[in-house]
Each structure stands twice: as C-alpha cells, then as structure tokens.
Write a structure and sequence with these properties.
This protein has a two-stranded antiparallel sheet with strand order 1-2. It has a two-stranded antiparallel ribbon with strand order 3-4. Strand 1 (about 65-70) and strand 2 (about 70-75) form a beta hairpin. It is built from five helices and four strands. Helix 2 (about 45-60) packs antiparallel against helix 3 and helix 2 packs antiparallel against helix 5. It has helices spanning about 25-40, 45-60, 80-85, 90-100, 115-145, and strands at about 65-70, 70-75, 100-105, 110-115. The model has no long low-confidence stretch (mean pLDDT about 90). The chain is mainly alpha-helical.
C-alpha cells in the first residue's frame, strides 16, 4: 500500500499520541484481520479494506497551493499516485476532481475551479465518504453472514466519531 510509519500521516497523529503504552499496533492489525476472516470476509475483501484505508491516508495528506483567490492546484507530494494505485483509480481524473467541481446546468456541465479552502473541504469529504461507505459495507456483509432469515439476527453499530 506504499505506506509510511503512522506518525507520517496527519490523520494518525492529530492527537500527538502515536505510541500508546501497552498497545501493539501489529497485534491489533492481526486481530482485525482475523475478525474479518471470522465474519466471512474473503482475502480479497480484506485486501480491499486495507487498500481503501491506505488510499484515505494518502489522500488526506494532499495539500493545496493558491494560484489566485478563486483557484488552486494540489502540491505534488507523491500522494495522488499512491492513492490511485490503492483505489485502482484514474490519476488524471482524481487530479482534476481535487481542484474543480462540476455543476450540471440545463446547457450541460460547467466545470468550476476551487480555491484552497473548497479543495481541502472536497478532499476531506472524499475521505469521509470512502470511510462511511467502507464501514456501511462491512456492517452489511456481517449482517448478511449472520442473517438466519427471520430478521432477528443483525448487528447494529453506533459510530460516535462519524
């Protein structure tokens, strides 16, 4: 997934507490993988989960520079190609979508450039949406595995951080 150490990523070190005493991240990773296997996730499913997470980590590291008050460009720190590889996405499309928005009009789509604030908001929304979809897919997958046909077995989760 072409990841660095956790301390490298803004989303991992926002609280300035990378190392937690008596917590082994490697062991937690193994437990998470085993839990997904126990819930019926295939090896490809598990790989896709980690690829989604890796792509989010890369995307969230992208910063923007102002061209003028109404437009910006992203600063190429190597994160876009890494995210595209993880997500199997087209790099040119992601590069365009990071700094523009397309508005449908009756005369056809209109592409508008984004300033740095709106581009960062779009980046953050993309990451949040991917995480939300990933989480929802995991819950549906687990519920499908535990469904006895009576509608009585399901897992309901409250995501207090989302």
């Amino acid at each position: 997934y072409e990841l660095e150490q956790a301390a490298h990523y803004r989303s991992c070190n926002a609280g300035k507490c990378i190392d937690i005493p008596k917590v082994d991240d490697g062991e937690d990773y193994s437990i998470a993988v085993e839990a997904m296997k126990n819930c019926g996730f295939s090896d490809d499913d598990i790989d896709s989960v980690w690829a989604c997470v890796a792509g989010c980590l890369h995307i969230y590291m992208i910063e923007f520079k102002e061209i003028d008050k109404d437009s910006c460009d992203y600063i190429d720190g190597g994160y876009v190609p890494k995210a595209c590889k993880a997500w199997k996405a087209d790099q040119a499309t992601l590069e365009k979508e990071l700094v523009t928005t397309t508005m449908p009009t009756r005369d056809g789509p209109v592409v508008k450039k984004l300033n740095t604030v709106k581009a960062a908001d779009g980046r953050d929304s993309l990451v949040k949406t991917v995480y939300d979809c990933l989480f929802g897919w995991q819950v549906l997958t687990i519920n499908a595995l535990t469904d006895s046909g009576t509608g009585q077995n399901f897992i309901g989760l409250l995501d207090i951080f989302g």
